[in-house]
Design goal:
The chain contains seven helices and three strands; from the N terminus they run αααβββαααα. The longest helix is centred in the middle third of the chain and has 15 residues. Helices cover 41% and strands 21% of the residues. It is of the alpha+beta class and 150 residues long.
């Protein structure tokens, strides 16, 4: 949802166990130019967001570790990348959780308030997704990153 609000791209999820994913070998660390062209044509896309969940814990506390990158299917270059850990016991993460709760959730979970983010995996995931979305550049910034066609 946060990525959609950036108006950067439409999102199509391709499950890792799908025939399309397996056929295009989207788990590869890099792609050749013909592979990039094939992916671009088959998915009707200019870029592909790939990555994985490095670590996930619900006990003894919520923790998520992600590794993501947005690959330009025209050039093979990385337009954006992220490798990050969100640990619900980390003070700086909790400070951002409090701001997220105040700014984006309101008071819907009183009396727990922001602490719902450290007790509910679902709400914690929404917080992490929002933080990831905030790191994405806007469409105009991405266009500036791409080499101009001459």
């Amino acid at each position: 949802d946060g990525l959609q609000r950036k108006n950067l791209f439409s999102l199509r999820i391709i499950p890792r166990n799908s025939e399309v994913w397996q056929d295009m070998q989207l788990d590869k660390p890099s792609f050749t130019n013909p592979e990039l062209l094939d992916i671009r044509k088959r998915l009707s896309a200019d870029a592909i967001l790939i990555g994985h969940l490095k670590e996930y814990r619900t006990y003894p506390h919520l923790m998520v570790s992600l590794n993501l990158k947005l690959i330009d299917l025209n050039t093979g270059g990385v337009l954006w990348g992220l490798e990050q850990i969100w640990d619900s016991t980390d003070q700086s993460v909790q400070k951002r959780m409090k701001m997220y709760y105040r700014d984006k959730m309101g008071d819907i979970y009183a009396p727990l308030n922001w602490q719902v983010l450290i007790t509910s995996p679902r709400e914690f995931h929404k917080f992490v997704a929002d933080e990831v979305a905030q790191t994405f550049p806007h469409a105009a910034q991405i266009l500036k990153m791409r080499p101009s066609s001459q």
